[in-house]
């Protein structure tokens, strides 16, 4: 970790220039990654799960329990959090004794190149291996070889399915997948019906959570709020108010700042993302939605060779209906769809019939009964339910999971170690000279040593 810390400024600059993340967010990504790694090491040393001595509570049988490596782990991380998301799988895999192969993302790979020197100083040769190039070209041969024991993949479900099917023995492939999401924000009617200063203050906090939840890092987060369900009688006010707040966001390059605050909306990583956003917006507008905010969806500046830039002003779409692409598809960008609802049954149906199951946010001020009913129903659909706050992965001590096509496996300081290891038991019967024999073995065995 000390070697990585020396690279902090270089890595922060790379995150700004390569993937368009503003300086404060880039710094936060680096710092959180280091904190996650340090907490993981602390957990190994203090938890007692990794060799805490011999258990004598089973009669004459003595048990030594620890965790051992799976084998060769293939790690594929995303472009949006190339350091944090990738290292939240890579570091636990290495700490558990696995050999790792890291596929550098086509966009976002430069940060990893800055870490190669740090790894080479800290790890034996061959422990970690880097592969660059097209994933469609480089990954199938690795999977087809049958020598990959575990796949740690953060990306799209279609790509994950193809990789898994390429393995000759997929039944023995240990999977850790963090995939798409279409996280809902559900707003209950009571939010808009209070006239007191306290009610208005609470609603203001909710709107602030909404702006951050939908558009932090341009909405390019699997944990972003991606579809907002608002009571029909209040949806127009909500759309106009949200549009007004979004119009006040600063738009610019990641390193630009004003009054000590960096640009809140920054360029998308490539033209393909811009074109996808435009296609979703055009489809929604054609089918009856309007862009609620001024200049929403427009492009700012000039790109390479005089072409269009990738700096897009967010688009607030209202009203969004079920026949529009953005109602079902994960936009993963600065497009915010608002869907009016007549009854909470509309919301429950969307959750029940949806493809994804990562998170949901419920916003309310006093409707405890209605909110409790939603929690009970959503608890069988989503991995995390947020009350009056945006969706998110933190804290790292809490399990980060999902259902359906959103995830397979659990991420946290503890769970990541479990995902990349197997509980392994050594036992003997306390008869004859066995105890003395095992004591002698402990002096020479690495596995029989306590991690503390």
Structure description:
It is built from 16 helices and 22 strands. The protein has helices spanning 2-5, 8-19, 23-46, 84-95, 110-113, 116-122, 135-144, 157-166, 197-215, 232-247, 271-286, 325-328, 344-353, 368-378, 413-419, 434-442; strands spanning 54-58, 61-69, 72-76, 99-103, 128-131, 150-154, 174-178, 183-187, 225-231, 257-258, 261-262, 290-291, 299-302, 308-312, 315-318, 335-341, 356-357, 359-363, 384-387, 403-404, 407-408, 421-429. The strands form 6 sheets. The protein has a 7-stranded mixed β-sheet, sandwiched between helices. It has a 6-stranded mixed β-sheet with strand order 5-4-3-6-7-21, with helices on both faces. It starts with a helix and ends in a 10-residue tail after the last helix. The model has no long low-confidence stretch (mean pLDDT 96).
Helix count from the secondary structure assignment: 16
Please give the radius of gyration in angstroms.
Answer: 25 Å
Please give the number of β-strands.
Answer: 22
Strand line-up in the sheet with most strands? 12-15-16-9-8-18-19
Average pLDDT score: 96
Structural class by SSE content:
alpha/beta
Q: Kindly estimate the percentage of residues that lie in beta strands according to DSSP.
A: 15-25%
| Helix residue percentage | 25-40%
- End-to-end distance: 18 Å
Are there runs of 5+ residues with pLDDT below 50, and where?
none
- What general outline do the C-alpha atoms trace? globular
> How many strands, what sense, and barrel or not for the largest sheet?
7 strands, mixed
